[in-house]
Amino acid sequence: MNVSTQALHDLYERDLDLVLAELKNYQKEENLWRVNGDVINSGGNLILHICGNLRHFIGSMLGGSGYIRQRDDEFNLKDVKKSEMVNEIKATKKIVLETLSNLTDTQLEDNFPVNVFGKEMTTSYFIHHLYGHLNYHLGQLNYHRRLLDS
Q1: Confidence band, pLDDT 50/70/90 cuts, at residue 112
Q2: Which ranges of 26-122 would DSSP assign to H, the alpha helix?
Q3: Buried b / exposed e across 53-69, counting CB within 10 Å, b at 16+?
């Protein structure tokens, strides 16, 4: 791995571990699925979305994992057991880190395999975007847990 890929690997590893920690820190499992007022995404749905997004774009599109995304389920499923969510986060972390470890400099410089935002972008650019997306939802997850799990 080059320095850039190693940094991304380490950041994804750290922050997927933080997603797992947030999940484990919910005092009551049912609070994972609570919403309130304008808070329309539960902590559980945020976790499913983080995992689905990364498993699709990194695991499947770049790593060839064969994962088939069910994006609607990421927001519509409710009451998924905490133990299943732990397994989902671990599976996501495994495929993301394996894929990042195997990317070459040439692959990073190539355009991402699909045009996601109506414009071409390098794989490196999109992986950085996905990292920002992960962090955005990690912050929401932390706030949800602290706000609704007290």
Answers
A1: very high
A2: 43-54, 71-76, 82-102, 105-109
A3: bbbbbbbbbbbebebeb
